[in-house]
Design a protein that fits this description.
Domain HepT-like: 21-79
Shape: flat
Distance between the termini: 34 Å
Organism: Thermodesulfovibrio yellowstonii
Radius of gyration: 18 Å
Order of helices and strands: HHH
Number of helices: 3
Helix content: over 70%
Protein name: HepT-like domain-containing protein
Mean pLDDT: 80
Pfam families: HepT-like_2
Number of strands: 0
Structural class: mainly alpha
């Protein structure tokens, strides 16, 4: 029984990773991960001045994600539509 559960868990993890790759590109994932890290720093750095250049870089990446977001989500929705046919 434990072996079957382990196999099922492995298959679910593999399928989840596949769906994640279909949902957003690796590049968008990297941008989002950097934004997440910056947000974490920003929320916890109460007495630290924000580096303007670092903020500019993060803001530029946020704009790049915004540009990519719609096309990547539409591509994923098209994939889901194909699965339903």
């Amino acid at each position: 029984m434990k072996e079957r559960i382990a196999v099922l868990k492995s298959e679910i993890e593999r399928d989840t990773e596949r769906l994640n790759r279909l949902l957003i590109s690796n590049q968008s994932f990297q941008y989002l991960n950097e934004l997440r890290a910056f947000r974490h720093f920003f929320r916890h750095a109460y007495d630290v001045d924000i580096d303007r250049e670092k903020f500019k870089i993060v803001a530029e990446k946020a704009l790049k994600i915004k540009e990519r977001y719609r096309s990547e989500i539409n591509r994923f929705l098209k994939f889901l539509d194909e699965l339903l046919k």
